[in-house]
Amino acid sequence: MSRLEAILAKVDANMPTSIAGLKHLLTFPSVSSQPDCKAGIIACAKWLQTQLDDLGFNAEVAETEGHPLVLARTPSPGGALRALFYGHYDVQPAEPIEAWHSPPFQPMIREEEGLTRIYARGASDSKSQLWSVIEAFRAWKFVAGDLPLEAVVVLEGEEEIGSPSLAQIVERYRDLLSCDVAFICDSDMWTSTRPAITTRLKGLFHEKVTIHAPNGDLHSGHFGNVAMNPVRVLAGILASIHDERGQVAIEGFYEGVRPLPAALREQWQSLDPAEALAGVSTEGGPEWDACGPFELIWARPSIDLNGIVGGNTGPGERSVLPGSATARLSFRLVDGQSPEQVRSIFRRFVEANLPQGARAEFEGQGGTSAVLVNENSPYIAAAARALEAEWGEPTLLKGSGGTIPIVELLMRELAVVDCIVTGFILADDAIHAPNERYDANRLRKGIRSWVRIIDEVGKL
Amino acid sequence: MSRLEAILAKVDANMPTSIAGLKHLLTFPSVSSQPDCKAGIIACAKWLQTQLDDLGFNAEVAETEGHPLVLARTPSPGGALRALFYGHYDVQPAEPIEAWHSPPFQPMIREEEGLTRIYARGASDSKSQLWSVIEAFRAWKFVAGDLPLEAVVVLEGEEEIGSPSLAQIVERYRDLLSCDVAFICDSDMWTSTRPAITTRLKGLFHEKVTIHAPNGDLHSGHFGNVAMNPVRVLAGILASIHDERGQVAIEGFYEGVRPLPAALREQWQSLDPAEALAGVSTEGGPEWDACGPFELIWARPSIDLNGIVGGNTGPGERSVLPGSATARLSFRLVDGQSPEQVRSIFRRFVEANLPQGARAEFEGQGGTSAVLVNENSPYIAAAARALEAEWGEPTLLKGSGGTIPIVELLMRELAVVDCIVTGFILADDAIHAPNERYDANRLRKGIRSWVRIIDEVGKL
User: Fold this and answer.
1) CB-based contact A281 B357, cutoff 8 Å
2) Which residues form a coiled coil (chains A, B) (predicted)?
3) A398 lies in which domain range?
């Protein structure tokens, strides 16, 4: 039995412990956007530090103005190459709680459809992803003693809120984080059997806009026909963001967006939409033109309405003209757009559409630009080989509609050319939604994949 | 001193007790639309029953499938004429609670702007109104022993939710409620010095519409450019209800609405908008055409967005495509429109504007039609004389944008021709809004007004 085979066998043997560890990690309510989850964030970071210390890493909880990161490194070089492994331990809010069939922070195992599924917020995005890497380190350490590379681990607590403290951390830990290759362990597979590496990520920023009418709440009968209704104003503005085909109709929004290279477009058009959409209906969504769905998801920007609230939200009737109404939006950007420019275009658009007497209040700052990584890197080739060896199907180089701010920072600030974004999330894991889930077989093969990637890259 | 003067002097002398009684009445959280206020509703009805019993009425709490009414009558005829006095003890929800400067069900007295103001939910709409009538009865009883008419009192607990049980009650108590004249004590003055009788009331129904997308909540990055966003669908539908000038653009909505008689239009155009709008800005509201604001408020129908909710409502960011979004609307109708017809036109409009794959769910039933009362009635003339005597300015016969379902029922079911809708609410009382208020001087003059109206009508 080769060393690699011995480590993989150790992974398989260790599965009950790996699942138990993931379940413990999923009990922390580490929702980065909700102030009352601060204790869950802190407890989660401390527990992860202990796990890494136990593996012989030098681990610390690095404080920021927001939520802390867990930083760790192997005590001795262990190889010629320094590799960074990034994951995030924060999660999206679990609301609406009543839509879950089991409590979101009490992981529930269900045997269904031939799978052992774990239901919890963060089960897929992204606690299983970082845990797969930690469990791969554990198997390596048990069988081989050392990793074949110097590993630096970064576990962030603010990914789901746009990583506001990450730029500071990259500046403060410049030496530690400078690396030959960075593995970003927070991405998805193509299908449940075909692995993928994501080479394009979208940019992202959030914006909250509140329309204030000149009056406070008013009686709808007395003033409905003469006074401004801010819900109507907001609805009008939101409805005019897109044209009838679902394209953004705000002037200047697509400025700087370059056409996709013809070869890439052709390659993406050959992919089967059904394989990646995983049962999600696109009925009534934006129209696909010649470009097809993957160009829309991976390479065309979008403005998405995340939420709206104003006036009476129930339970009873209230015959009121509300004094204000609020919308929350996320902006997904592509190469050629910057958060600053698009935010300013959006705010001008809202202001230009306000009736006399209405006032718009904006909240939102910062954001992340899109990234394209070098698809011809030898590290990508090595990782792709390792993934294919584990899964038995060729690794797809693909885009993503998601955003991982650290990639842009590593490339721009630390000149890390080779960022390898991969992971084992599937489109039907219900990430960012109720009843998020993962399955034990993907956890096992994910850990084995990281064992193989470390082995392949360690040889470079 | 005449008998009338003696009764009026008794009202003045009794003011500290009258204010204390109103304050007690305002402590009951009798919000008819909120299930957890049921206890407040019951307690309020029982307390009012006791108050009327103490005045020598035969009072009962009449149960319904919803909230009870308080019904009472004078034990002996007391005069040739039977007069019904209607008020309602239920109130609108107090939300948003945080916008109140004192708790909405802990009445707070403030001396400000030369007035003694009472702040509480229901202070103006409508507990002060029914209390003014009860206090007028009390002064009459103290000085004269009997009223100069047979009085029937109806205090409703479901006015703010569209009076769903009232039709049953009118049927069940047909004999008791049949009367020569009905006083509807739930309306407003023209200005703080000029009394008014409302001869036109709008109809009203509520509708809740939820747009369901074909999917549940989705990740906004992965699916924003390809899947339906129900907030966008709802915003589009809401934005297309009105045209650019603020008129309803739904085909058939204005069908049956008759033009205002030229003489009435001319009279209304001579009124000063500033006097009735009481500081409410009409900036950015629907455009006034030649008809002027009072025709819009009193004689043109409206569709009003009362509230909207969907997806992330905070506190943190959530990068989600919501699975559904909900709007609440109130429809204010005029003579010639029926709730059934307009509701069906609205639902067809929503269905016709749904994209493929979206589903609309509607909640809402019943409603009230508009009413026009006979302006040439001798009872109106008598009440107008009494009001002018108290306030020193001529009584204005006007319309209202509000709705009081009992008027339509009395006219249609019991053929009560003379319904006199009056009261002492002012446009700046913040009814249906935070920091609702009333003032002690209006309470005093309101009680005195009812003393005089009873006197004048008793002579007929």
Assistant:
1) yes
2) none
3) 3-201+370-458
